[in-house]
Amino acid sequence: MKHLTTLALAMTLAALVGCPEKEKPVEPERTAAVAEQKKEKAPAVDAFATDAWIGKWVGVEGLALVIDRGAGPGTYNLTISSMDGTTKHVGTADNTRIRFERNGTEYIHAGKGTDTGLKWLADKNNCLIIKEAEGFCR
Fold first, then answer.
1. Can you give the residue ranges of every domain in the chain?
2. Mind listing the pLDDT tens digit for each residue in 36-80?
3. Which parts of 4-138 are beta strand (E)?
């Protein structure tokens, strides 16, 4: 009997020590959750360089340009406050600028304060320009 107990103990120890631990199967729910987290961290496919411009940009004498995300990728709702009043337009990403219609096709592009032609913005480095004397900075 003592011999059988020793043999059983030896077999149990051999089974525990000699066999590698089996990997646990991955739970499908956990896999889906991890995949969703990775998806959230991945850069958006529909991202445009001009998306960085979303927000308020200030011009001279209280004038402003407000860029909001539009209905679809690469579209923007533009609110331009100028001396002539406030107008609203829909803009579209066009490489490194935003294209919109106002008295024909116009563009918003990045530049420096000196590019605006406005002495009050000359010391700024982060600006958007529609045309000379119509610039807005942050």
1. 2-41, 49-137
2. 555 555 444 458 999 999 999 999 998 999 999 999 999 999 999
3. 55-58, 64-69, 75-82, 85-94, 97-101, 105-111, 127-131, 134-137
